[in-house]
């Protein structure tokens, strides 16, 4: 009982305090031209069962990209059309109650590295939302992570995946890296497998400039004289193809999105 209350309290703290605070900061950075969203109209604000895939140039993306749905994902009941159809009936209140719990599906689960970004005490607030992966652990542990993400999608939730399996600067050093004017490391096939197995739509996202705002390997102080650009691609589904073909398609879509102006 205590564990359930703690988990519930942690979610409420993150959803109603921490995320809105960070979301307001991002809105201010956008207003002052430090963050630019390209084709935000493509982002399906209310869609459940969704996989967001993105490149991973720095440590900022796991913080920035889950906030793309703010404030709708955190306060869906505020934006509900039910308020324009007020009825003092049991069914109306029952429908409104569903809106209050919808944010549990709209807030995307991230997949942080277990040792560095999940187990440390300072990451405790996010342990009830994210699904860790132990990159140095056994194959069975990584399979468990993928199955947990599959369960989230089957329940109508969202997940955020960086299919390079780490930051781009490391991913491009592995065999299979793709290099052109924009760098993308060789992709792992977990996101493709999840999309094929669950039928979830994929929302591709390309991020530019985060590695200049928060350079890799340097003191983690944001350089706000640089601008971040977040490009959102057209959502799509994949079916009737192999996991390898689906992975190649994700890479193709991301690189195509990188070239959009």
Structure write-up:
The chain has about 260 residues and is an alpha/beta fold. The chain has a single domain (about 1-70, about 105-260), classed as Glycerol-3-phosphate (1)-acyltransferase (3-Layer(aba) Sandwich), CATH 3.40.1130.10. It contains 10 helices and 7 strands. The strands form 2 sheets. It has a 5-stranded mixed beta sheet. A hairpin with a 3-residue loop joins strand 4 and strand 5. The longest helix has 30 residues, at about 1-30. The radius of gyration is 19 Å and the shape is globular. The N and C termini lie far apart (about 50 Å).
Alpha-carbon distance between the two ends: 52 Å
The major β-sheet equals: 5 strands, mixed
Number of strands: 7
Number of helices: 10
**What is the global morphology?**
globular
> Unreliable runs, pLDDT <50, ≥5 residues?
none
Overall average pLDDT: 84
Rg over C-alpha atoms, rounded to the nearest angstrom: 19 Å
Can you tell me the CATH superfamily?
Answer: Glycerol-3-phosphate (1)-acyltransferase
CATH architecture: 3-Layer(aba) Sandwich
Q: What is the total domain count?
A: 1
Q: Please identify the top-level CATH class.
A: Alpha Beta
List descriptors.
261 residues; alpha/beta; Glycerol-3-phosphate (1)-acyltransferase; five-stranded mixed β-sheet; two-stranded antiparallel sheet; 11% strand
């Amino acid at each position: 009982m205590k564990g359930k209350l703690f988990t519930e309290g942690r979610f409420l703290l993150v959803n109603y305090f921490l995320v809105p605070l960070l979301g307001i900061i991002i809105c201010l950075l956008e207003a002052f031209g430090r963050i630019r969203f390209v084709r935000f109209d493509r982002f399906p604000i209310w869609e459940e069962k969704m996989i967001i895939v993105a490149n991973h140039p720095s440590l900022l993306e796991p913080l920035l990209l889950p906030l793309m749905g703010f404030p709708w994902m955190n306060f869906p009941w505020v934006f509900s059309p039910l308020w324009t159809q007020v009825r003092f009936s049991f069914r109306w209140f029952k429908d409104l109650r569903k809106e209050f719990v919808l944010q549990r599906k709209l807030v995307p689960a991230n997949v942080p590295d277990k040792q560095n970004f999940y187990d440390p005490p300072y990451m405790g607030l996010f342990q009830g939302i994210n699904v860790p992966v132990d990159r140095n652990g056994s194959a069975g542990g990584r399979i468990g992570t993928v199955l947990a993400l599959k369960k989230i999608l089957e329940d109508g939730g969202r997940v955020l995946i960086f299919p390079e399996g780490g930051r781009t600067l490391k991913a491009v050093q592995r065999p299979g890296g793709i290099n052109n004017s924009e760098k993308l490391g060789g992709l792992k096939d977990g996101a493709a497998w999840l999309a094929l197995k669950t039928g979830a739509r994929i929302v591709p996202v390309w991020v530019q400039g985060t590695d200049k705002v928060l350079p890799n390997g340097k003191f983690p102080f944001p350089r706000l004289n640089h601008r971040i650009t977040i490009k959102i691609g057209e959502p799509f589904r994949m079916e009737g193809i192999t996991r390898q073909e689906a992975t190649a398609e994700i890479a193709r879509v991301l690189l195509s999105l990188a070239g959009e102006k």
